[in-house]
Design brief:
The protein has 287 residues and is α/β, with parallel strands linked by helices. It is 47% helix and 11% strand. α5 packs across α9. The longest helix has 22 residues. The model has no long low-confidence stretch (mean pLDDT 94). Bound molecules: zinc ion (2 copies). The site of one zinc ion has 9 residues, from loops.
């Protein structure tokens, strides 16, 4: 979804819904989240006080990654975020989730705590930057809300900023990372694109496509080719599932060279839902 306006994105999604009618529901939620993020997406600073046009800022972040081997998000201070824009966006995301059938009371409770500042929105953004699962589990337990849902909402708040960074980093930065977790935000990929036989892992949060060895289990780090295998769905040579015999987890792979119609950035996971069913039937676990 690089460099597309929100209207272009909507048109694109309308077209995808026609191509994949069975996926209407998840695709509709996807566009509702994009719409909820509109204020931050339209802001050149992406809901922060920083100018991402500043090349030295990106270079400085890349240097920190090289030195520490930690993803860029670890070096972003949550105080860069504009709490008002984050709260507004949060309200719109909660509304979208409720419209899609998520239980209202539990989500409202979480939102009320943010609006009344009982939970700091910047702390929540910071926890999402660090991928701090414990933070979301603690609040989830206290509020009786699914922690995964709170993490989803918080991640959506910082997503436009992380996507912007992913667009601005050097291509060589993404080619040389060579590890399982995203170099921008530290998330674990569930999909990848194969280009000229090179496997680019796709970050589910910032959309970064970064190169990693084809013989690497992104779940457990196994690099033994004898225990890294793949499954292909019959009649769909453009898709396959790479899996690890040691941990039984899998990665969904889209072969760009064999793809009949392009899959836009950001839609890889939704459009390959059939691969999850195939992998599940084979006794494999989703990352
Ligand atoms: Zn990422
Ligand atoms: Zn594994």
């Amino acid at each position: 979804m690089k460099n597309l306006s929100i209207d272009d994105q909507k048109r694109l999604i309308d077209k995808i819904v026609i191509d994949y009618p069975d996926l209407r529901n998840p695709l509709e939620l996807h566009i509702m989240i994009l719409q909820a993020q509109e204020e931050i997406r339209n802001d050149p600073k992406k809901g922060t006080s920083l100018s991402w046009e500043d090349k030295s800022l990106i270079e400085d972040l890349q240097k920190k990654v090289h030195k520490s081997n930690q993803p860029i998000a670890k070096f972003l201070n949550p105080s860069i975020f504009d709490s008002r824009a984050l709260i507004n966006t949060c309200k719109r995301i909660v509304k979208a989730l409720i419209e899609k059938g998520v239980e209202e009371d539990l989500l409202k409770r979480f939102l009320d705590e943010l609006v009344s500042e009982r939970i700091s929105i910047l702390d929540t953004a910071g926890a999402a930057l660090r991928g701090d699962v414990e933070y979301f589990e603690n609040h989830g337990k206290r509020l009786g809300t699914n922690p995964v849902l709170i993490l989803f909402i918080a991640s959506a708040l910082i997503q436009p900023c992380l996507e912007e960074i992913a667009k601005k980093v050097d291509a060589s930065f993404l080619e040389k990372w060579w590890q399982a977790l995203c170099p921008i935000c530290g998330r674990r990929p569930t999909t990848a694109r194969l280009k000229a036989r090179k496997r680019y892992l796709i970050c589910p949060l910032c959309g970064a496509e970064y190169l990693a060895d084809i013989f690497l289990c992104v779940n457990c780090g196994n690099v033994d080719p004898a225990t890294l295998r793949f499954l292909s769905p019959e009649g769909y040579p453009e898709f396959r599932v790479d899996f690890c015999e040691k941990c039984k987890h899998y990665l969904k792979v889209i072969d760009e060279d064999k793809l009949k119609r392009p899959i836009p950035k950001g839609f890889e996971d939704i459009i390959t839902i059939d691969l999850d069913i195939m992998a599940n039937n084979a006794g494999l676990k989703r990352i």
